[in-house]
Design a protein that fits this description.
By secondary structure, the protein is mainly beta. Helices cover 11% and strands 41% of the residues. The chain has a 6-stranded mixed β-sheet.
Length: 121
Amino acid sequence: MATEKTGEWQETEAGAAANESGWGETVDAESQVVLEGEGDGFIATYVDMDSTQSGIKQLHLEDVYDLRDQYAGKYMFFNVTRDLEQKLKRIPPKSQIRVEWVSSLPTGQKDPMRVYSVQWR
């Protein structure tokens, strides 16, 4: 932020140490979590849930791991089904969640509905 007297930029310790140009960290873009089949899932910190302009509900996550404990990414999102949306309504933001695709339920639509197991702490 520029000071009133000199108009010069002031740097915080983190900003000054971040890199030679004086700028801090680059903000990472979100990547999408994609589950290939039943039994797949993830463990992450639940940040929030919102809707895209087209109405698709998205779950926003931090520090995402797959169920085999392999790191997937810092910031990720997951497109939410109705089943998962209902289960997530009871979970407070900043909770650690474990989501697993446990079965598929025929609904008469082209694709069956995915049913998830959700745990949190």
